[in-house]
Every structure is written in C-alpha cells, then in structure tokens.
Specification:
With 230 residues, the protein is α/β, with parallel strands linked by helices. 32% of the residues lie in helices and 21% in strands. The strands form three sheets. Strands 7-1-8-9 form a four-stranded antiparallel beta sheet, covered by helices on one side. Strands 4-3-5 form a three-stranded parallel beta sheet, sandwiched between helices.
Amino acid sequence: MGKISKKRKVVNKKVDANKMYALDEAMALVKDVNTTKFDASVDIHIRLGVDPRKADQALRGTVTLPHGTGKTKRVLVFCTPDKEQEALDAGADHVGLDELVTKIQGGWLDFDVAVAMPPAMAKVGRVARILGPRGLMPNPKTGTVTMDLATAVKDVKGGKVAFRVDKYGIIHSSIGRVSFEPSKLVDNASELVATLNKMKPSSAKGTYMKSVTVASTMSPGIKVDTKSIR
C-alpha cells in the first residue's frame, strides 16, 4: 500500500483542488497525473442545473465523439434470422433473438451495447429487468431500437456513446483514454458539452452548466472552468 499512497501524494500535490483549470490544461494534467500501468479511461462529470424528476429535464441522448472512446465496444443485436447477416456485416459481435434472450436469462452479459429491431422488443422485454439497471436496454431515444441495424452498429463501433443524467443531475461519460493526445480529449469533451447545450430544457432555471470535472480511472478530480469550453 505504501507505494500507491506515495504516488497518490505526489499526484494530489499536482492537482490544486481549489483551482478551475482551462479545458486544455485539465486534459494535459489528467494525462500527467495518471498513476495506472494500463491505458486508463478519461471520464468527464458534468453537473447540470436540471431536475431529473421532471420528464422534460431527465436528459438522455447520444453523442458521436470525434476521436472515439479508445475502446471498441462489443455489440449485440436482437434480430430475426433474415437480418442477422446485415448486422454481422456491419460489425456486430453477437446476433440472434431467442437463444440470446435465454443466454442473458442464464447470466451471460458479454457485450457493451445492445441494439434491437422493433419487432424483437417483445422478446427483449423478458430480460428488461436484467438489462435495464445495467444501462444495456435498447432504446429508441439512443438509436438502438431501429430497423436500420447496420447504421446503429456502425455508429456504436465508430465512437457513438449514450449518456443520461443521473438522479443528482450529473452526466458521466468516458471521453477517451490517457494515451490520447490532450487535443483529442479536448475535442471529445467539447463535442459532449455542445450536445448538452443544444439539449438545454426550456424549463431549466438558473445556471445550466454548473460544474465540469475530469478524471482518469485512478486520478483525483480536476475542476474545469466551464467558460473555457468552446
């Protein structure tokens, strides 16, 4: 434990907990303070001035990050046999319907995103209790319930991420890896913020972008000055 805490102490000295960093400074710093041996995820946490209990303020949607997340997502597609080849050709990792539902009922969850064609949703409903809490349930709002399976699969593989506001009004999203150039992390973060700004509910009062923090898997949070995000 001694080694980790020493490393952590050094890192904590580098991050000023009271300072608001410009976005580009924050992205350079998050790389600098990463203490993991692996290529850690860089995550952004955006606190919005919304009340998630109100339907029009419970924001959810998708954003295509210009540089992807650095992680190839495993995509499962619930579809009828005639659409299986189309999904596979687009890069799906698992296709099918009844047998996939049965596997999931048995505890198998070896995928990151699920896509479904609308006629398959009745059967997918049988595993909603398993998929829902894990954020894996296909949803028309995030483009994962569609007849255009090929586009949905390609979008997910190409860096499209889904987000939703939690009960505290915070959006959490991965925006890349510590191996990314800081400029790519800045681009990805800016794209997400721009998407959220477009989605601002007319009923939300007061400051909309309340706070933005970035961190890698093991680093302390770095506060970002919201005015520095273009």
